[in-house]
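fyi for ur records
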Amino acid sequence: MSNLDSRLDTSRSALTTDLESSIPSADALSLLKLARIANQIKQSENQTLETLIDSRAQTLISGASVEDLTKVAGAVAKVIDAVTPNTSSGAELPTQSGNANKWLTTDGTNMTWGDVDGITATEYINEAGLPASGNTNGDLAYAVSEKSLNFWNGTAWENIGNWT
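which gave:
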């Protein structure tokens, strides 16, 4: 707990102990509330709490109503955290060497560095001059007289905004 505000360690420890004793007998709503508390006091990666919540969720799922399943799912979701990269050490990030000016992306499982592609729009005098053919889905066009940004949806241009 020392990586957070150390003046609150005693309170966080007491809350964690209370969570550990309350979770095994919690009903679906109480489990959701207890998981929220765990998340709020930054204990969503506490293996003991995760194990207790998982075990209680398994018990509650059997024969649960849709309403209770929603609560149990909410409780589980509260302790599922995406990896938060430690940007000061870079320990959880992919290799940074040779990846200047790139952005961090994911395929849902693995983090990688991606190229930053510029978004460009072709400029036209007006919307009437936007081409009806030869476009690629996703093309952008700026019509100067209308001050409008347009998007080719694969079959037609769609106005997505005007500026004054």
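The mean pLDDT is 84. thats all i got for now
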